[in-house]
């Protein structure tokens, strides 16, 4: 049999996932030339990056040279915040895009880029989940959705953030900002890098440089988890600030607080401090090429290190001291309880010993044995002997 190619791509709907954070993925049923059918999941940002690469590979067919020669279908840029409404509204557009894609000339529809993008990945077979978090919610596309595509499309207002300081990009995938710039958030990553758009510019920006227009940052950050979650260090980091931790690859630590800027509060033995979340991986979670690639990037700056920050909020970001984290952690509390219990046991043992010794001191002296008659006769005086005799 020749090279594999795709016969048909059907959009089934989307899935709302809650691990490692809330996000949405589209479900595609991919039918191959060998009559197999595979289910794959893709984020919209992934699909759009694939679309841009496809246009670069075929500049004539994408209309970059002459708009009249364009045959590659259009796909709107990620203008919407990745919420449920925007995810649902894009379904009609994506369904039409996939139908047009597989019907392009074979040099496009059967190229390696298209084939590899829709191949099954390990996380398609067994998505990473957490038993303590809600199971994914599935939303299937109605069968007549293609006929009523206008019913599920429409604009949505993006969540807008303001830049609190100037930021100079250090790679092509990033976007430079000036203090006061208003950007729309397309995707929030736990690594501390957010995908933003500003007019015609799009790119990754450190979350530390952004603040929401409708409220302070702490309204979005989850509360500390003093019970701790087990993570494994995937890349070493040497502390720069006093409240950071120096850890080595392979160390097992506990995550106490996940912050939006990508710097999480972690505990190693009795020490707590900040550490880049992009260098951590949940214990037992498999590694992926995407995560490995992410770790090769530089760590995002911390909010506290940004100079001349011009915040529009009077209420400053909630600060929790490392001592507070340490004293409230369940492990610390349990260790203190163990120490107190040990000290109490020692005190009880000492008290019992003292009581026993005290009781001994209060006891009556032993009565000496009565001397024998011969001993008395030998030791007594002559007067006593005469009386006895």
From TrEMBL:
Localization: Cytoplasm
Biased segments, Basic residues type: 327-339
Signal sequence, renumbered to the chain: none
Listed Basic and acidic residues bias regions: 352-361
Molecular function terms, GO-annotated: phosphatidylinositol binding; superoxide-generating NADPH oxidase activator activity
Keyword field: Cytoplasm, Phosphoprotein, Repeat, SH3 domain
Domain SH3: residue ranges: 156-215, 226-285
InterPro entries the record matches: NADPH_Oxidase/PX-Domain (IPR051228), NCF1_C (IPR015039), NCF1_PBR/AIR (IPR032136), NCF1_SH3_1 (IPR035756), NCF1_SH3_2 (IPR035757), P47PHOX (IPR001655), PX_dom (IPR001683), PX_dom_sf (IPR036871)
A GO biological-process term: respiratory burst
One Pfam family linked to the record: SH3_1
Region (Disordered): 276-389
Limits of the PX domain: 4-125
Designated name of the protein: Neutrophil cytosolic factor 1
Organism listed in the record: Anas zonorhyncha (Eastern spot-billed duck)
Source taxonomy: Eukaryota, Metazoa, Chordata, Craniata, Vertebrata
């Amino acid at each position: 049999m020749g090279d594999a190619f795709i016969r048909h791509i059907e959009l089934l709907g989307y899935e709302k996932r809650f691990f490692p954070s809330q996000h949405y993925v589209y479900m595609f049923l991919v039918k191959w030339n060998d009559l197999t059918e595979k289910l794959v999941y893709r984020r919209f940002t992934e699909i759009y990056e694939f679309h841009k690469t496809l246009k670069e590979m075929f500049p004539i067919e994408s209309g970059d040279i002459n708009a009249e020669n364009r045959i590659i279908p259009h796909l709107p840029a990620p203008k919407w915040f990745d919420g449920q409404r925007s995810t649902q509204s894009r379904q009609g557009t994506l369904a039409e895009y996939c139908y047009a894609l597989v019907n392009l000339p074979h040099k496009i529809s059967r190229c390696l880029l298209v084939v590899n993008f829709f191949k099954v990945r390990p996380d398609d077979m067994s998505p990473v989940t957490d038993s303590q978090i809600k199971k994914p919610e599935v939303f299937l596309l109605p069968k007549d959705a293609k006929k009523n595509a206008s019913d599920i499309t429409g604009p949505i207002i993006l969540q807008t953030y303001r830049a609190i300081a100037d930021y100079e990009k250090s790679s092509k995938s990033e976007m430079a900002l000036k203090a006061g710039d208003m950007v729309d958030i397309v995707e929030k990553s736990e690594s501390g890098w957010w995908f933003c758009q500003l007019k015609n510019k799009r790119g990754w920006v450190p979350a530390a440089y952004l603040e929401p227009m409708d409220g302070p940052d702490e309204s979005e950050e989850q509360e500390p988890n003093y019970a701790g979650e087990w993570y494994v260090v995937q890349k070493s980091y040497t502390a720069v600030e006093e409240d950071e931790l120096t850890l080595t690859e392979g160390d097992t630590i506990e995550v106490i607080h996940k912050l939006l800027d990508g710097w999480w509060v972690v505990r190693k033995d009795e020490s707590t401090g900040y550490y880049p979340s992009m260098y951590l991986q949940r214990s037992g979670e498999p590694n992926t090429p995407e995560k490995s690639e992410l770790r090769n990037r530089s760590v995002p700056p911390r909010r506290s290190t940004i100079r001349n920050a011009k915040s529009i909020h009077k209420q400053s970001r909630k600060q929790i001291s490392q001592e507070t984290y340490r004293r409230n952690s369940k492990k610390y509390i349990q260790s203190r309880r163990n120490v107190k219990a040990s000290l109490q046991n020692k005190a009880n043992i000492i008290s019992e010993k003292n009581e026993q010794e005290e009781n001994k001191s209060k006891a009556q002296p032993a009565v000496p044995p009565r001397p024998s008659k011969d001993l008395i006769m030998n030791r007594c005086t002559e007067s006593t002997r005469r009386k006895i005799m």
